[in-house]
Amino acid sequence: xxxxxxxxxxxxxxxxxxxxxxxxxxxxxxxxxxxxxxxxxxxxxxxxxxxxxxxxxxxxxxxxxxxxxxxxxxxxxxxxxxxxxxxxxxxxxxxxxxxxxxxxxxxxxxxxxxxxxxxxxxxxxxxxxxxxxxxxxxxxxxxxxxxxxxxxxxxxxxxxxxxxxxxxxxxxxxxxxxxxxxxxxxxxxxxxxxxxxxxxxxxxxxxxxxxxxxxxx
Length: 217
Fold this sequence. Notes:
Layout: H1 2-5, H2 16-21, H3 34-41, E1 47-51, H4 58-71, E2 76-80, H5 81-85, H6 96-115, E3 119-123, H7 129-139, E4 144-149, H8 153-159, H9 164-169, E5 191-193, H10 200-216
Parallel strand pairs: 1-3, 1-4, 2-3, 4-5
Helix pairs in contact: 4-10, 6-7
């Protein structure tokens, strides 16, 4: 259940008084709604969730996609793994509970961006199926476009743009997804893009077509 995932073990010892306050929170009724913001923007808001191994091409696709959206006059924003972990989530590690909390927080931010009327592009390894299901449930299936960047690990490792695979192979880095930690292939993604055979521009075209179809549905 979603409520189980939202309470990772790392927070079991939280001050009970703080937890009690959550029962006295109420959703404010603001005058301007998401529909109003979408109308002002001239397009619907959606979340495009890019998942795949480090070096698969997620950030490259995300950047190219936002550039294309910008040229089309669409309001968008990228939530990138490294960027978020350098600020909002810098207190988190890479153990199972921390990874779940990382994606939970990102999902909440993406949901806020959705309400703001933005097309939000997330670029996270998000290696576990339960995490991606959590994000989809929180954001809403009708708003969620999951793109599996399926570039094979041997290609990712040859690129090794961040030097992570080299460190993992030499024992300097533990829990790197694909080497010391598993990656669970998405069960039913909206689309699969292998950047070893599909160009960045072609990948962007695929996502834009899906976005248009989702917005029209």
